[in-house]
Fold this protein.
Amino acid sequence: MDSACAEYICVAETKLAIKPAAVTYEAAAPVPLAAQTALIGLRDLGKLQSRQKVLVNGASGGVGTFAVQIASALGAEVTGVSSSKNADLVKSLGADHVIDYAKQDFTRGTVRYDLILDLVGNYSLFACRRVLTPNSFYGTPGGGRGRWFGPMTQQLKCALLSPFVSQQLAPVNDKPNQDLPFLMGLVEAGVVTPVIDKTYPLSETADAMRYQEAGHVRGKVVITVGE
């Protein structure tokens, strides 16, 4: 969940960037965290190249909607995993293929991917590696469940296993960088469109949290501050 509240967008700590006049506050709000996480996973860690095969698990969520668009803009062949009700949305964002997770387990398919960005963590790391090419990348910002470490379990498994396999397995975390002007330029140019499910005024933050925690949010939920 993000807040659209000022002419400046906080990247992290003291790093700021000016919001382009053509971009609304609501559209700008999800970019610093969600869009940057997607860009770091795809370009910085995954070293995504044009024509590579990319799978985004959780393609209709906050980071996922950005990941599909950014991967498509970088020239990748994109497969998005989502529910059937969100298939049209994911397709409209630039996905070449959409998999309904309720009907098909992508980890048991025949397609091999150069990069998997796993935003859900509902499949084991072993299962995901089964559909990766030998010198590929698997990244996750966390998710799923673990007995001891909760949503961080998949990230810890990546860090422990990566030195011993040919694929690169890595946690994907947002960090201070200089990419916010680049991302805002993509939004301003219409190359990337933030997907906003709902907006709530600050006074209804509790309702927004309940909606977010109920799951199945399409894109992001935004809190507005002031008029």
